[in-house]
Give the backbone structure.
Amino acid sequence: MAWFKKLFWVGAGLAMGGALAVFVADELKTSRLQSALWHDLARDARFSVDAGPSDAIRFPRAGPYDERLGYRQLPDFIERLQRQGYAVTRQARMSPRLIELQEHGLFAPYREKNQAGLSVRDCRNEALLHTRVPGRAYERFEDVPPLLVSALLFVEDRHLLDAQPPQRNPAIDPERFAKAVLEQALRTVSLGRTASGGSTLATQIEKYRHSPQGRTGSVGEKLRQMASASLRAYQDGEDTQARRRQIVVDYLDTVPLAARPGIGEVHGLGDGLWAWYGRDVREVNRLLADDAEGTAPTPEALERQAAAFKEALSLMIAQRRPSQHLLGDGEGLARLTDSYLRLMAEAGLITSSLRDAALPLPLHLQPELPPTPRPDFVQRKATTALRTHISTLLDVPRAYDLERLDLEAETSLDSEAQAVAARVLAGLRIPAAAKAAGLFGPHMLDPGADPGPLIYSFTLFERSAGANLLRVQADSIDQPFDVNQGARLDLGSTAKLRTLVSYLEIVAELHANWSGLGAAELSALAPSPRDPLGIWARQYLLGTKDRRLAPMLEAAMERKYSASPGEAFFTGGGLHQFENFERSRNGSSMTVREGFKHSVNLVFIRLMRDLVRHRMFGGATDPERLLKDPADPRRRELLSRFADHEGSAFLVRFHRKYQNRSAAQAEALLLRGLRSSAPRLASVLFTIEPDASDARLEELLARQLGRGAASPRELKALRTTYASLSLADRGYVARVHPLELWLVGFLRRHPGATLADVLDASAGERQEVYAWLFKTRHKSAQDRRLRELLELDAFAQIHRSWQRQGYPFASLTPSYASAIGASGDRPAALAELMGIVVNDGVRLPTQRVEALHFARDTPYETRLEPRNAKPEQVLPAEVTATLRRALLEVVNDGTARRLKGALADANGRAIDIGGKTGTGDHRYERTGRGGRVISERKIDRSATFVFMIGERYFGTVMAYVHEPHAARYRFTSALPTQLLKSLGPQLLPVLQRSGCAGD
C-alpha cells in the first residue's frame, strides 16, 4: 500500500507538472491569460484635461525622454512661472488607476510622442518657430520600407510581427527570455561569463526612454521595463497587432545613436543617417522602396541600394554600443554589419546580389556635413527675442535644451506685421529703397550717402484691457543682438519727455500738498529762495480761483525759460555749457510747451536745474541751515558720505588702471608719471612697501635719479621724515593721489584682489585722505562738496521717478545734461513710458507670451497663462492728458510735423499721431589743460521717435550708425520720423485685420 500511495503522489505531481508545463507553453504561445490581465490593468489607466490646476497628476522622476521633453522639470517650471505672475488654467487629471500604476513604480502608459519640440505661435495662431526633435521621422508603419522592417526584426526582435497569436505580448520573447534567464544563472556561477539581456524592442524603448540614464541597472529595473511595456501594449485591447507595428515605428524614430559635435544627441534612424553618414532618409526610403518592387535594378542602382541599406543596417547594429561604434574608427561596426549581411542572405531576407554589392562597400562615418545655412536674423529678430524671453521665464539658458521641450508658446506678436516691418527695414540698405521711402533730404541722408551702414529698429505695442501687447519688434541688424532691448544708447532729446514727466509730476505733488490750504496758510508758507518751482506753485495757488490740477498743469506748461546758451552751469561736479540744435532759438525766451514742441535744449537744461533744486531745497530737511551753520551735526555725516563716494570713484578708476599687472609692472606704471625727487620717491616707496629696507630705497633712488643717497645719514633722514607721514601727506609730497599709492601697495600684498576686495579694505583710508575736509576752516570747500552730495541725492530721487515709469538702468548721470540724453535709454523702455501716457498714467505689464502649453495630449499636460498684476497708477491721469496734448503738438506743429495727416482710418479721417523726437551724438573727446578739446572721435549717432498712433498703438522707431561710419552722417530725428511716415500706411491695414485685436 505504501508503494501505491507513493506512486500515486508521484503520478499526480507529474501530471500537475505536465499540465502546468502545457499551460505555460500554451500561454507563452497564445498570451491568452496575460492579454486579459494586462488589458484589465491598463484599461482604466486614462487621463483627461480640465480647467484649473489638478491634484490628480504625478510627474515622472527620471528618464532621458522625460528629461529632454521637460516632463520631469514641469513642477519646477510651474513654480517658477507662478512666481512671475502665471497661473495654471488647464491641467491633466489622471485616473486613480493611472496614479496607482505610477505610484507602484511603473511608467505611465499613454501614446508617447516620437517627435516634440518648441513651437512659438503669433496672435493669429500662425507658426513663428516650429522645432521638432528628431527632425526626420516616419509618420506611419506603411512609410517604412519593408526591407528596413525585416532588417530591424532580424537584428532585434524576430517574432515581433508574427500574425499568430494576435494577442502576443511584445514585451516578452519566450525564446530570448528563457535564454537570458539561463545565461544569467550561469553567470552567477562563472563570473567571467557574459549574458545577453533578452530585451525586445518594446522593453528597449521603455529602457532608453524612462529608465534612469537610459540603462538597465538591476533585475528589478528589467522587470519594470517589461511590465510597463506590457501595460502599454494592451491598453487599447487584447489584440496587439497594431501596437506591435507602432513599436517598429517608435523604435526607428527614437533609438538613441550617440551624439556628434556640432549636432548634439542623435535620435532615430532618420537623424542618424544624416548625422553619421550625411544621408537623407528620404533618399534611403526611395532606394529601398525601389528594391521592393521586384524588378532587377541596374548595377549602378544596386550599388546605391546596397550602400543605403548597409548604412541603415549598421545603425541598427550600432545602437547596442553607439558611442563605441560611431565615435571610433568604425572597423568593428563594419565587421558586424558584414556578418549580418551574410546571415540575412542565408535567411532569405535579402538577395545574394544585394549582399554581394554591399559587402565590399566601406562605411564612411562622420562625413563633413554641409554648412548649416546662416539664419536671417533680421527676419527672425522677434522670434529670437521671444525665444530668449521664454528661456528667461523657464531658466533654461541653452537654446539647445529649450528647443527640445514639448512646449507650445502663444505670443502677442503679429507675424504679418512683423514680416512687413522686417522686409522694409532690411531693404533700406539699398539706395533705391531708401529713396523710395523718402529718406534722402535735409536733416536725413545727404545726396549720394550710402544707406548700407545704417541700422533701423521699430517696436510697436497695442494697448489692451490688461496689458501692453507686443505686435512688432524688428531691426535691421543681421545678428542675434536686439538693439531695441540690448543696448544703452544716447537717444538725445527723447529724454526731454522723461524730464517733462518729472516736471509735471512735481507740479502734481505740490498741488496735492497745497491746493487744500486756505489763503492764510498758503501765505504763511515760505519756500526756499533756491526752489523756483515751490515759489511758483505758491504764487499760482494764491492767485487762482480754479484750484483743480488740470489748469495748474496747463499753467506750468506756460512757464517761461531762456533758451540762451550764454550761461555756464555747475553740475555733475564741473562747469558745463550747452548749445541748442537750432541757433535761431538762442535769443528766445519761451514756454515749456514751446521748448518741448521745438526740442530746445537750453529750456530743458534750465528746467532740469529747477527740478534738481526743488528736490534739494523743496523738502522738509532744511538744507539751507545745513549749508549756513558749520556746527550742524549733519555736515560731518554728509562729508563722510562724500569722502566715501568720491574715494570709491577714484579707486574704481585706479583698480582698472593697475589690475592684472605684476608688482613690478604696477610700480613702473606708477613711477612713469612721477617727476622724480628723493622726497617723492621715498613717499611712494614707504606707501607701497612700508617695510622697505635702506638698500631698497638706495636702489630706487639710483634707478630713478641716476644716483643714490649721499650718505647713510641721508637715507635715514628720508626714512624718518617720509615713512612717518600720513597717507594723505605722502600723496601730497609725491604729487600722486594718496588712494592710488595705497592701491598699488594693496595689490602688491594681495595680488589678484577684486574691486570688491579693494573697496572693502579701504573704508578707513577713504576717510583718512579727506581728513582735511572735516576741519571747519575749510567751510567753503565743505559747502561745495555738500552741494554736490545734495545734487546727487536730488538726482537719485529723479531716478526713482524715472524707474517707476520704466527707465531700464540702475543709475542716472547726475548732470543737467540728463535732460537732453546724457544718461542713455533704450527704445523698448521709451515705448513703455509712452504706454503709460496712452493708458492714462497706468503702468500695465508688457505681454509677449500669452500662454505656455506644456506636454499637450499627455498625462502631464499643463497650460499656464499670465495673470496680470494689478495695474499700477504711476502718474495722475491729468498729468498724462497734459502730456498727450504736448505730444500731439510735436507732430502738428513741431519737430515731427512731417507726420501730420500721414495716417488715415478706413473712412479717410486722419488719425492723431503724437510723439517726441531725439537725436544723440556720442563722441569721445580728449581734453588738455583748461578743458581744451585736443581731439574727438564720433562713436555713434542715433535718431529716435517715440510715438503714439490713435488710442491703440504706440512704440519707437530709430536710426543708428556706429563707428567707423558715424562720422560720415548728419541725420537727425527727421530720418526715423520719415521712416514711420513711409512704414505706417503699410502696417496699419495689416494690424487692423481681424483675428489679432487687442481688446
Notes: Residues 2-30 form the longest helix (29 residues). The CA atoms of residues 277 and 749 lie 59 Å apart. The two ends are 98 Å apart (CA to CA). The mean pLDDT is 86.
